[in-house]
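okkk here we go again. third time trying to get the zinc ion bound version out, last two times i messed up the smiles copy paste (missing a bracket lol). double checked this time i swear
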Amino acid sequence: MTGKLAQIIVLLGAPGAGKGTVAQYLKSKYDVCHFSTGNLLRNEIQEGTNLGMKVKGIVASGGLVGDDVINEIVEKNLGETVGGCSIVVLDGYPRTRRQAEVLDGMTSGKLKALIRVVELSIDREALISRLSQRLVCSECGNTYGPKDGKSTCSCGGGLIKRKDDEESTIRERFRKYEEETLPVSSYYGDRLVKVSGSGTPDEVAQSVDGVLCSFGIEKRR
Ligand SMILES: [Zn+2]
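finally!!
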């Protein structure tokens, strides 16, 4: 995994469409660096960088980390990555059309040609019903669906319904996602490929393999 940064894969998908699972899969089978905005923010805080201190202050005061700070953190990390990592998977960024435009302009516009987008699409009502029936382990965070028929986690922890998984909360998250992210999908136009997130994890993985192959990206040997 040497040489220049060759590709940036942006993962898009509604809450619960399986972006996390796909990101894990990519990490296990391909030579990729995975950047999620959450992890990038946590790293900055842990390393005590200037940006990290700024983020810490914002979070401590209950504020939301704004676009400018997030853009700056992504650009810094992509800059540091060039030379160390040939494929970067971005997860949770860009979230808005404005961020997508900023990303295209990073490193004097040189990144733009490297960006390809994979959007996980999923039947909205099916997803809402799945999420609203989801249970989460209060100890380790593993999630279980109704099909699992479990009342305790394999770690021994109790299963609870997250407040976030109430149907009304899920609908609100969707509305917000569609409002912000649909413009991102249309912005990318033919740089974007849609993959169905509705199948089994194996089926989704297979579709993702096909798309990456079409981008000229091969699995780790
Ligand atoms: Zn557990």
